[in-house]
Amino acid sequence: MTTPAKPNALLPLVTILKECPSLDTSFSEKLLVETWNGLKQTDPEHGNEITPAVMAGLVLADEEDFAQLLNEAERSQMIVLAKVALERYRQKTNPPNKLGKIIAAVLKEKT
């Protein structure tokens, strides 16, 4: 016969299960840093081509000069798309664990 668990004994497990992501390992902070560092090493002064990625970064980062290359509607679209990409990156690197949350909720009800 099993001994009933103390009411709060499972609370640490509940917390862990709620926070436990099911990671998509194809995206990571390490990959972000490596890709960013590669982009930063693009050097037009030494013959590297200015790519659309570089130009997009300049348009988004420099509102006074490079942003003026796009009209207001185009800039708005670019900002929206960048925000969508950022949100999707965050979801891929720290997605909600639905199963973990369900188990945590059931365990919490039982305690």
Count the beta strands: 0
Q: What general form does the structure show?
A: elongated
**What is the strand content?**
under 5%
The helical percent reads 55-70%
Total of DSSP H or I helical runs spanning 4+ residues: 5
Outline the structure in words.
By secondary structure, the protein is mainly alpha-helical. The protein folds into 2 domains: 1-22 and 96-111, no CATH class; 26-94, no CATH class. 59% of the residues lie in helices and 0% in strands. The chain has 5 helices and no strands. It has helices at residues 11-19, 29-40, 52-61, 72-93, 98-110. Helix 1 (11-19) runs antiparallel to helix 5 (98-110). It is elongated. The mean pLDDT is 83.
Describe, in short, the structure shown:
Helix content is 59%, strand content 0%. By secondary structure, the chain is mainly α. It has two domains: 38 residues, no CATH class; 69 residues, no CATH class.
Tag the structure with descriptive keywords.
59% helix, mainly alpha, 0% strand
Give the arrangement of secondary structure elements.
Blueprint lengths: L10 H9 L9 H12 L11 H10 L10 H22 L4 H13 L1
Helix pairs in contact: 1-5
